Amino acid sequence: MITIRQISKYFGFNDIRKTDVAFAFICAITGIVLYLLPTGFEGAVSSKSQSVRAQITAVDNESIHQIGLIKTGEQGLTVKILDGRFRGEVFDTVNHFLGKLELDKFYKTGDRVFTVLTVENNIIEGVTVVDRYRLNYEFFIIVIFCGFLLLYAGWTGFQAIISFFFTTLVLWKILLPGYLKYYDPVIFSMVIVTILTAVIIFLVAGFTKKGFVAFAGSMTGVFLTCFLALFFGKFFNIPGEIKPFSETLLYIGFSKLDLSMIFLAGIFISSAGAVMDIAMDVSASMAEISEKNPDIHIMDLILSGFTVGRSVIGTMTTTLLFAYSGSFSTMLMVFIAQGVPVDNILNVQYVSSEILHTVVGSFGLVTVAPLTAIAGGFIYGNYRKPVFKFMSKN
């Protein structure tokens, strides 16, 4: 029969320290403050705008012109407001086609859509259908994710949830608005990554030796990735405008943005998560070894950390390849379908940018494991024992 004590031990409640609870509480409160914190760009959206959920009750496709796969013209829509103070009211609006498959939406009767109302003096002046309504599904899948995380990991899962939402809010409320305010992309990103790395690692591992070793290893990997991104970025000569919607940013009033530096900063930001994974894996393994064998010498422990790191790196280096390749798979399919030679493909700036992303990010992964092992050896190891077991007098 399973006892309450066993359940408590499984979910990690027996190992909770007051400092961990306090730090989790501080991060949660900070996250709430960040959520309420204005980005400074709220004025870009009219105060007269209201977002509501609506349903399309009728469509008029008479003005749509089909040219191959592309639709042009406009689609007449009749929408019924489903919530808010205008609930139940019906309005006519238009869905304009831009001639771009990735941006155009074709609606059908019965579709539920996210709609923006322009209201003045309690009268709706305009109705704009933005896209299909997906917020309910997004909320549902996030709740399911958090539920499974809590069910499996208990207290650690709760800490992971706090770190997940804290990271999301920092990126949305601080990092991206900072770019728009023309902060130095590399320096500002490094500060944000350092803060997030500390919060994530110490939330999960606590203020323990394991946490400090993982943090030290992570930051060495991130700094190296940053240096390599800046160094090789000059030789690759890739403009930051290749990223989606970069051109739109320039045209809406942010022409002074250093998109190239933002692109390079994105390299070490995107690899920071994988770097933390490896650092935590190596640190946790070394902590377990040290706990089971407290008398292990520093050099023996470092070699054990190297062994663990080699196994982790073996699969993690391809993790970034999988992560990045999905973003440009259709482009590669176009090149392959047209019979473009491999050397031509590799020299295209879109492909070159992803190669830079993948290889530089992997450099950080390769170095973080041995650096974490060395840091762990000095923190966990026993200096009084012989350096290697075979050097023992016995």
Average pLDDT reading: 84
Overall tally of structural domains: 2
| Helical content class | 55-70%
Instruction: Let me know the largest β-sheet.
Output: 6 strands, antiparallel
Could you spell the SSE succession in H and E letters?
Answer: HHEEEEEEHHHHHHHHHH
Using only C-alpha atoms, the radius of gyration works out to 26 Å
Measured distance between first and last alpha carbons: 47 Å
Number of helices: 12
Structural class: alpha+beta
Give the CA-based shape: globular
Give the strand content: 5-15%
Could you outline the blueprint of secondary structure elements for this entry?
Elements: H1 4-10, H2 18-36, E1 49-60, E2 64-67, E3 70-81, E4 90-96, E5 112-120, E6 123-132, H3 135-153, H4 155-180, H5 185-205, H6 209-236, H7 246-251, H8 259-292, H9 298-325, H10 329-337, H11 342-347, H12 349-380
Antiparallel strand pairs: 1-3, 1-5, 2-3, 3-4, 5-6
Helix pairs in contact: 2-4, 3-4, 4-5, 5-6, 5-8, 6-8, 6-12, 8-9, 8-12, 9-12
Give a structural overview:
The chain has 394 residues and is of the alpha+beta class. The protein starts with a helix and ends in a 14-residue tail after the last helix. The protein is globular and about 80 Å long. Strand 5 and strand 6 form a beta hairpin. The C terminus is likely disordered. The protein folds into two domains: 88 residues, no CATH class; 210 residues, no CATH class. Helix 8 runs antiparallel to helix 9.
